[in-house]
Design brief:
mainly alpha; single chain; 11 helices; disordered N terminus
């Protein structure tokens, strides 16, 4: 094998590792910053809307009210429930994602130049589906923690304790609750990627080789928020399914959950938490993009120094 080919392989593998590390570190930092909003969003998604005429008062009301209630009843720990499994999940998620993305890109024919956008979209969806299937157990545990409050029947002490309890009481199937809507959620790539590319073209009015970092960040936030709005309903269904730990289950699968939620609560459940989702998404993308950029720069610097040693 020629030196040029070897160099190409090492560069590709180096870039893959570099972006996996950057994505994982940035994701972890972003999770710490946005965790309280994520807890609020998850609690509101999991809260059923009472029928008209009911005298019961909803436990959580709005973002501010929910934050205040969690703080008063559970303290700072309540606002960071689910952070553990989230942090555990980021490194395997990004490592699997980039490896799978590279595989799918080759499988779909990355060398073809006539349908490059479609190749990237399908490769991203395939990679997203692969990482979702592998890491779904951690996201189930995350949802269980985030929906756990002072009145919850099941009490999970930490990630490993939750893993043991779920395995013992629900079996392996318990770790794959909500997988259907999670897989549907990867379709957001089909919205986000083309919009992101279009935004970059619109922002690059001077035909520069590379866009400025703020422009890339702006394009990322707009495309991610639009994709989240377009594919958001699956999140409510996923949260409801993943949070079910006791028998009998209220929802018997994805389609049944959609029918029950629509029949009993209508689309208002979606509208109630759209605002929180947008705020969380914007903050998440902002932190993820900023930290990922910093980590990539640092890793590049370390790599450059290592080459001269």
């Amino acid at each position: 094998m020629s030196n040029s080919k070897l160099t190409g392989i090492f560069t590709t593998e180096s870039d893959k590792l570099k972006h996996s590390i950057a994505g994982a570190v940035a994701g972890c930092v972003s999770s710490v910053v946005t965790c309280p909003l994520d807890v609020v969003k998850t609690r509101l998604q999991n809260q059923r809307k009472e029928r008209k005429g009911s005298n019961s008062v909803p436990l959580y009301k709005g973002t501010g009210g929910t934050l205040k209630r969690i703080w008063n009843e559970e303290g700072i720990r309540g606002l960071y429930r689910g952070l553990g499994p989230t942090l555990y999940g980021y490194l395997p998620t990004w490592a699997i994602y980039f490896s799978a993305y590279d595989h799918f890109k080759r499988a779909f024919g990355a060398e073809r130049t006539d349908h490059q956008s479609m190749v990237h979209i399908f490769a991203a969806m395939g990679a997203g589906a692969t990482s979702t299937v592998v890491t779904n157990p951690l996201w189930v545990i995350k949802t269980r923690f985030m929906t756990q409050n002072v009145t919850s029947t099941h009490k999970y002490h930490n990630t490993f304790h939750a893993f043991k309890i779920i395995l013992r009481t629900e079996g392996v199937r318990g770790f794959y609750k909500g997988l259907g809507p999670s897989l549907m959620g990867v379709s957001h790539v089909a919205v986000q990627f083309p919009l992101y590319e279009k935004m970059k073209l619109l922002l690059n009015s001077s035909d520069q080789e590379e866009l400025s970092y703020p422009a890339i960040l702006f394009a990322s936030i707009v495309s991610k928020m639009a994709a989240s709005l377009a594919t958001y309903p699956h999140e409510v269904v996923r949260t409801r399914l993943q949070s079910q730990s006791t028998q009998p289950h209220r929802y018997h699968g994805m389609c049944h959950a959609v029918k029950v939620i629509y029949r009993e609560e209508g689309w208002e459940i979606e509208c109630r938490v759209y605002q929180r989702r947008l705020v969380t998404t914007a903050w998440s993308v902002l932190n993820l993009g900023s930290n990922r950029h910093v980590v990539v720069v640092k890793v590049n610097s370390i790599t450059a120094v290592a080459r001269h040693l």
